[in-house]
Write a structure and sequence with these properties.
Elements (H helix, E strand, L loop, with lengths): L1 E5 L1 H10 L6 E2 L11 E10 L2 E2 L3 E3 L2 E10 L7 E4 L5 E5 L3 E12 L2 E13 L6 E10 L4 E6 L2 H11 L8 E2 L13 E3 L14 E2 L3 E3 L9 E2 L5 E4 L8 E12 L8 E14 L3 E3 L9 E10 L2 E3 L3 E7 L3 E8 L1 E5 L1
Length: 326
């Protein structure tokens, strides 16, 4: 979960810096004869109550989805319509529905989804399914449901020339990373690990980790190191992602979330790992480590921070570790 508060002065500074931002996407209104459309719907429930989107008496409330196209680390951002339904006209290929960004007044919440879907070159339009998010003010858990009969009626009304032609191609929940039978909290007493207000789980040593942003690594083959657990029989899993950039709500600078998996190492005996190959230059990365006791693992290690400056204040809870290559 992440909360940020911007002032007019900080926005002006970002404008002066001038940074290119990833694209946004709207629902398709008219479909060319050779184009394919993927469609579906999203429902969000906080404490059992379904949320609505747009400008309300209590302020604005928007929900965004980040879609990663093939061979790119710039995610396209889509702002959810009031009825929760979406109609996307995308070039053929394999896409990843990366995550969500929920912006309510000045509070921002982000979460990872990581499901794949395909846009066909030919054939009928495709219903991807209904994504139901359930949770509270801290986290949301995505679930995937088939409401084809309900959503396809709206599709038929919107595109009468294609009435009755769409088919199901349901997105599936992503497979869990690695092998395990149970998960414990990063700071569970069984792990015998020291947690503090900043770090939950292991404490990273290298690459450098700042409280926010992407500190620079001085090599394309960094050695990943972290403080060892007090238990000698515990091993470690490490995962490394390329960071995917996205923007919401007219932001002048991109935000980042986990993109494509670069490496996953399971059962490391020592609190260190180094890749056999070079990472990409001028690229942002996100990584974490979890503890392993046989087929029981901890949650992924995270950090939290609070930063308060004259023109900017931000805080982050449960964030992964980040760095950038030269």
């Amino acid at each position: 979960m992440k909360r940020s508060f911007y002032t007019a002065l900080s926005a002006l500074l970002l404008f002066i810096w001038g940074c290119a931002v990833p694209p946004t996407m709207k629902d398709v209104e008219q479909i060319a004869a050779g184009d394919r459309v993927v469609f579906g719907s999203v429902e969000v429930y906080e404490d059992g109550e379904q949320e609505k989107w747009g400008i309300k008496f209590t302020g604005s409330n928007y929900f965004y989805l980040a879609i990663l196209p093939p061979d790119s680390n710039e995610a396209t951002t889509y702002k959810l319509a009031k009825d929760g339904q979406f109609y996307w006209s995308l070039p053929p290929g394999e896409y990843t529905l990366l995550g969500y960004h929920w912006q309510d007044l000045q509070a921002q919440r982000t979460g990872y989804i990581g499901v794949r879907f395909s846009v066909p070159e030919t054939g009928p339009d495709v219903y991807l399914g209904t994504i139901e998010f359930h949770g509270n003010a801290v986290f949301l858990v995505p679930q995937f449901a088939d409401k084809f009969d309900q959503v396809s009626r709206s599709y038929d009304t919107k595109f009468p020339s294609r009435r009755g032609t769409a088919i199901r191609q349901m997105i599936q929940a992503p497979q869990a990373l690695g092998n395990f039978s149970a998960i414990r909290g990063q700071c569970h007493a069984d792990w015998r690990i020291e947690c503090d207000k900043r770090f939950r789980g292991v404490t990273p040593i290298s690459p450098d980790v700042s409280q926010s942003g992407f500190p620079m690594a001085d090599t394309l083959r960094p050695e990943f190191r972290w403080k060892a657990c007090a238990r000698q029989d515990v091993s470690y899993d490490l995962v490394l992602y390329e960071a995917a950039a996205y923007t919401v709500g007219g932001a002048l600078m991109p935000s980042y979330m986990k993109g494509r998996v670069v490496a996953y190492e399971e059962g490391l005996k020592e609190p260190r790992w180094q890749s056999d190959t070079h990472l990409k230059a001028d690229t942002r990365y996100i990584w974490s480590v979890r503890l392993r006791d046989g087929d029981i693992v901890s949650r992924w290690s995270t950090q939290s921070h609070s930063t308060f400056l004259l023109v900017y204040a931000s805080s982050g809870y449960g964030q992964w570790f980040q760095f950038k290559t030269t």
